[in-house]
Amino acid sequence: MELDERMYRFFEDRVRDVLVETVTLGLGYSAVTTSDGGIGIAYTYFTNKGSCTFIGKYYDFEGKPALELLEKIKSPQPLEKTMALALVNALNYQHALSLPEDKDNAVLLESFQIGEKTRVAMVGDFTPVARILKEKGALLEVIDIARNIGNKADFYEKLKNWAQVMILTSTSILNNTTEEIFQYTGKGVKTVLLGPSTPMIGEVFSHLPVHMLAGTVPIEKEKVLKAVRHGVGTRVIQRFSRKSYLSLL
After folding, report:
1. What is the CATH number of the domain that holds 155?
2. Residues 20 and 111 in one domain
3. Exposure check for the chain: N or C terminus, fewer CB within 10 A?
4. 56, 66, 90 from 12: Cα distances, Å
């Protein structure tokens, strides 16, 4: 995937002196901390649990050069890629801290002019966001394969010929569907990549028609790490974080 390669190249020369401090794989999210003070999270992505082992060969990344884990952003193994995406967000932590906040998604709604009868295609069932959109009177089409919501062929047809706005989960990076989905996105559709896994780095998305990045930046580090260890989800983690955005329009 070109996106994976771009994330790797963006940090390849920047991480020569950075070490991985901790790697925490939680049931809901995973977190990585780095020697330069960074912390990043990513959705813990795995398919059906067929045994007690998810990664065939054990390797301890803690205390090792960050470049070793960064290479796993190109891995076909879901948990390796999860750890690497959390690392990408940790390496980008200082930049992400400088980005403006969109606590209640007001900037997203205003920037994309979402209102009565706006046609929105949503990849990933963001229930709180969907509720806001419906309150605004928007027309919503949702697909979430993991939850058996929607039909792929029907959704892609609407994404190409019906949608005015697309809200895309950043989990698509982990299951390698981001670039495929954009191939089916109609011309002129306004797009946002949304979710705590989102790398807030405009440069790595320059080959895709992404108009906004909306992610989660941990603020209270220890509380975020504890929440990850306890297997909680987005709502709890965001209590100790900031919802930030980066406009690419």
Report:
1. 3.40.50.11590
2. no
3. C
4. 26, 9, 14
